[in-house]
Amino acid sequence: MNFWQSTTYTVAGSLMWEFFLENEYPSINDFITTPVGGMALGEIIFRLSGLLIDNRATGWNRFGREVLSALISPMNGLNRIFSGEAWKVRHKENGFSDGIPVKFYIEIGHRALAEDSEIKNKIDNAVFLDMQLLYGNLFSEENEKPYDAFQVRTSFNFFSKQPAIGNVNLVGQLWGKTFP
Q: What is the residue-wise DSSP string for 153-168?
C-alpha cells in the first residue's frame, strides 16, 4: 500500500483504541494527534530502517543489517522475514533508499538555565545532546511521495532538573510542487 492507503489503518486503529480500549471519553485532540503522529512516526521509522538494508550483502553483514533494521521497525522486519526478502540476495541494494542523501548532526555542550527570573543566582547547569537527521532533499523535483524528505530533531538533558528528553520534532514533506 502507498502512504495514503495505509492512513486508513492508522485512523481505524486510533479510533478503535479511543472508543474500546480507554476508560475515558475521547477528546477532539485524540482524533487528530494520534493518527497524524502515528502516520509520521511510522513512515519515518520505516524509511530509516530501509537505509540499513542491503540486498547485495551476505553472511554476518546481512544478518546484522537485517537485525538492526528490524529493531528500528519491527513490522518491516517481520514483513521481510515472512515475504522471504530478508535472505534473498539481489544485485541492487534496496528499492527505495538508493541514492537518498542523508545527513546526521550531533551537538554536545553545556547549558545554564535560570530557574527563576527573580532569583538570578539559582542556575541549573546541564549537559545537552542535540541530534538532527536530514533525509532526502526538500527542494528536489523528484520528491513525489509523502516523506520523500523529512527531518528529525531530538534534544536530551543530562545532570539537570530539566526533563531527560528535551524535545522530539518530526517534520515531513507531504506534498511538493515546483513553480517556474
A: EEEEEESSSS-SEEEE
56-102 tens-digit pLDDT: 888 999 899 999 999 999 999 999 999 988 888 887 656 556 678 89
Q: What is the pLDDT of residues 4-18, one digit of tens each?
A: 888 888 889 888 888
Determine if residue 136 is left, alpha or beta; phi over 0 gives left, psi from -120 to 50 gives alpha, anything else beta: left
For residue 91, the number of C-alpha atoms closer than 13 Å in the C-beta half-sphere is 0
Per-residue 3-state assignment (H helix, E strand, C coil) for 93-131: CCCCCCCCCEEEEEEEEEEEEECCCCCCCCEEEEEEEEE
Q: Which of 86, 100, 8, 85 is nearest to 47 (CA)?
A: 100
Reduce the DSSP state of residue 20 to 3 states and report it. Answer: helix
Q: Which residues make beta-bridge pairs with 152? A: 133, 170
Q: What is the pTM of this model?
A: 0.77
Q: Which residues, listed in sequence order, are joined to residue 114 by a DSSP beta bridge?
A: 123
